[in-house]
Amino acid sequence: MRAVVVVPVLKKTGKPAADVAASSTRSDESRLEEATGLALAIDLDVVHGTIVPVAQPKPGTLLGSGKIEEIGHILNEKDAGLVIVDHPLTPVQQRNLEKEWNAKVIDRTGLILEIFGRRASTKEGTLQVDLAHLNYQKGRLVRSWTHLERQRGGAGFMGGPGETQIEADRRLLQERIVRLERELEQVRRTRQLHRSKRKKVPHPIVALVGYTNAGKSTLFNRMTGAGVLAEDMLFATLDPTLRRLKLPHGRMVILSDTVGFISDLPTHLVAAFRATLEEVLEADLILHVRDLSDPDNQAQASDVLRILADLGIDEKEGAERIVEVWNKIDRLEPEVREALVNKAAGADNTVAVSAITGEGVDDLLAEIGQRLSGVLTECTVALGLDQLQLLPWIYEHAIVDGRDDLEDGRISLDLRLTESEAAELERRLGNGPKPVAEDW
């Protein structure tokens, strides 16, 4: 479908209207580029894009009559039947603009929901997107169609006014929302069960987060050898993926690739995807992947940190758990790239990488190992002949710094492992408390 992209900008502050309340500033041109990228992500043919200064938002149409008429002429000239407004629209504004332009109008929230609907590939992802869609549609049931005013007969012998069609539609939507929320609650319980199982075999969790199209999935594939879809496209991947990753010193961790963030992420989506985003909350280490080739990467980073704060990861906690990964340095000029690499090397919790070429990935793995080593304990164990079957478990769950095969057949190992793993090893060696059987 041929589409026109409109980016409203408040004239008073020079900020995009969608970012008025945001603390980060972003250029109008980059907002237009992002909105166009969102449209291209669902295979729309964007024939025109325009930035519209808005001195005073109109309650009924958002835009002034002059701009509405101007955009109407563009729609006729370009033979476009869809207008994407990069700003939240009220149901009344959306309906009035559709009447003025005689074209379909969707706002930023509707566009992101449409992208998520196409990207969802698992049952969980589909449930989350469906719930967000229904909550969005519930507020869009306005009397724009005559059938919504029809009434059904009520109870009783003679019947009565009953409920209007719009009331019936709202009731049906609410019933579907309740059903989806129940199913998602089951998903949340399942995720909690999976996390509890992982804690019994405690591998640290490392989560990748970042603005959409920052290169998280490409970096995930580079580090794990997985085949996650990675394209130069906004929201190329949606469903979270977890893979085991072996660090250079032999320690095993679980790497989690999550959905990309974006400015003004619809509240419907934040609520629906909370079960998925809980993986970030449970992570021992968070890798904040940033696209350093994007001129607005600082504003994007602020948006990501704001969403993390909304999830419950405050700035103080984030400083201890977050490592910044400056990605896409291969796209920079040699002088700029060298300066950034040197700056990252001299900064705490920062690594410069290229997920495409692999440059800096070894340094990132070393940084992950160093950050997680702070929670390791050192110990030396001697395995008797009857305990050698524990060797595979030890090599999987601990870092073996030294091994000495003794003449009598015993094996002495210098280990580093977490406190919980050390306690489990003691139990397996017969030195720790045995599990207590529960009474039923």
TrEMBL record:
MF (Gene Ontology): GTP binding; GTPase activity; metal ion binding; ribosome binding
Cofactor(s) demanded: Mg(2+)
GO CC term (a single one): cytoplasm
Residues binding GTP, per UniProt: 210-217, 235-239, 257-260, 327-330
Keyword Cytoplasm: yes
Transmembrane region(s): none
Coiled-coil region(s): 163-197
Keywords of this entry: Coiled coil, Cytoplasm, GTP-binding, Magnesium, Metal-binding, Nucleotide-binding
Domain of life: Bacteria
PROSITE patterns: G_HFLX (PS51705)
Residue stretches making up the Hflx-type G domain: 204-376
Keyword Magnesium: yes
Annotated localization: Cytoplasm
Binding site for Mg(2+): 217, 237
Subunit annotation: Monomer. Associates with the 50S ribosomal subunit.
PANTHER family according to UniProt: GTP-BINDING PROTEIN 6-RELATED, GTP-BINDING PROTEIN HFLX
Annotated family: Belongs to the TRAFAC class OBG-HflX-like GTPase superfamily. HflX GTPase family.
Protein name: GTPase HflX
Species the sequence originates in: Sinorhizobium americanum
